[in-house]
TrEMBL record:
Enzyme Commission numbers on file: 2.3.1.234
GO molecular function annotations of the record: iron ion binding; tRNA N(6)-L-threonylcarbamoyladenine synthase activity
Binding site for substrate: L134, V135, S136, G137, G138, D167, G180, N276
Subcellular location, principal: cytoplasm
Physiological role: Required for the formation of a threonylcarbamoyl group on adenosine at position 37 (t(6)A37) in tRNAs that read codons beginning with adenine. Is involved in the transfer of the threonylcarbamoyl moiety of threonylcarbamoyl-AMP (TC-AMP) to the N6 group of A37, together with TsaE and TsaB. TsaD likely plays a direct catalytic role in this reaction.
InterPro entries linked: ATPase_NBD (IPR043129), Gcp-like_dom (IPR000905), KAE1/TsaD (IPR017861), Peptidase_M22_CS (IPR017860), TsaD (IPR022450)
Leader sequence segment: none
Binding site residues for Fe cation: H111, H115, D304
Keyword Transferase set for record: yes
Record-stated family: Belongs to the KAE1 / TsaD family.
Name the UniProt record assigns to this protein: tRNA N6-adenosine threonylcarbamoyltransferase
Length: 345
């Protein structure tokens, strides 16, 4: 079965073709980062308009790269939420229309299920059940993935997402958007021990997280150094390192607890922050001690992409799912736990 995947939930237009026998056939991505960078964050209306501009050219490109015609597709999957409503509607409208025109099923996909399943695109794919840490620009979730569609929440951020904290801290230091890659690069030059940031919500039991306090702590640290404009390169690198260590240690502590609480031996880490090198290193050490194997997406599939949506759609299509009716609707908010187990046919 061959499924086209369309991702337009935020600021990347992603399109891909996944074949259940041959794997990922092709994928293309256009990131709007440069367009939004001047505003210091994503401008929803500009995002929607740019998806309109990019989608069909990317679609032609992936079909041509895959060496197939539209008639050889068995389904069209698209991100139906959560995300920016206007941006989602572009992908949903195009996907629904294409599926209708080609006479194949349309498959609404939950964006976070896409992230969650991205590590399954790798050669060494984890099997269900597993524990997952999803850390992205809008979410920080710990959950137990029992089967396709059956995701039991274990914990989540009570305020900012981990990626959001990276973005906001970076903005305070005058670094570009997105902040994660910028902070992680800068932290390599940082000197350990100069600043000590808190590890929020690790002094009490539980799997919930909080990252907004680290934002305030960053602001205060910068203030004590005389403000953002007074920072030299070494100051910035030292703050970046201390901030990153605090986020990473907090995530590692929560993962350790989740593995101990569930007794699971497989941990999947996905979403944009899963690209972070220090997170991967420290998790490897901590999980190694527990005999837990950690699975990640390839670096290109940590942040938003069409491949994860094509893949999630293909699994659902293979299980007999499809969208009923011709309506086009999206959900800006959509808890992952509302999905139900997909019966295997
Ligand atoms: P969501 O998936 O919750 O809707 P999103 O789609 O915007 O949000 P992703 O595309 O998964 O999020 O990830 C983007 C986030 O990942 C940004 O916040 C970015 O700063 C962060 N990020 C990317 N690379 C890194 C990195 N190397 N280290 C830390 N954070 C990173
Ligand atoms: Mg993005
Ligand atoms: Fe995402």
């Amino acid at each position: 079965m061959r499924v086209l995947g369309i991702e337009t939930s935020c600021d990347e237009t992603g399109v891909a073709v996944y074949d259940t026998e041959r794997g990922l056939l092709s994928q293309a991505l256009f990131s709007q980062i440069d367009m939004h960078a001047v505003y210091g964050g994503v401008v929803p209306e500009l995002a929607s308009r740019d998806h309109v501009r990019r989608l069909l050219p990317l679609l032609r490109q992936v079909l041509s790269d895959a060496g197939i015609g539209a008639r050889e597709l068995d389904g069209v999957a698209y991100t139906a939420g959560p995300g920016l409503a206007g941006a989602l509607l572009v992908g949903a409208g195009v996907a629904r229309a294409l599926a209708y025109g080609w006479g194949v099923p349309a498959l609404p996909v939950h964006h976070m299920e896409g992230h969650l399943l991205a590590p399954l695109l790798e050669d060494d794919a984890p099997e269900f059940p597993f524990v997952a840490l999803l850390v992205s620009g809008g979410h920080s979730l710990l959950l137990e993935a029992r089967a396709l569609g059956e995701y039991v929440p274990l914990g989540e951020s009570v305020d900012d997402a981990a990626g959001e904290a990276f973005d906001k801290a970076a903005k305070m230091m005058g670094l570009g958007y997105p902040g994660g890659p910028a902070i992680s690069r800068l932290a390599e030059q940082g000197r350990a021990g100069r600043f000590r940031f808190p590890r929020p919500m690790t002094d009490r039991p539980g799997l919930d997280m909080s990252f907004s306090g680290l934002k305030t702590f960053t602001l205060n640290t910068i203030h004590d150094l005389g403000g953002a404009t007074a920072l030299n390169d070494q100051d910035r690198a030292d703050v970046a390192l201390a901030f990153q260590e605090a986020v990473v240690d907090t995530l590692v502590i929560k993962c350790r607890r989740a593995m101990q609480a569930t007794g699971a031996k497989r941990l999947v880490v996905a979403g944009g922050v899963s690209a972070n090198g220090m997170l991967r290193e420290r998790l490897a050490r901590a999980m190694g001690k527990l005999g837990v194997k950690v699975y990640y997406p390839g670096l290109a599939y940590c942040t938003d992409n069409g491949a994860m949506i094509a893949y999630a759609g293909a699994l659902r299509l293979a299980a007999g799912e499809r969208q009923e009716g011709l309506g086009v609707s999206v959900r800006a908010r959509w808890p992952l736990s509302e999905l139900g187990r997909v019966p295997v046919r």
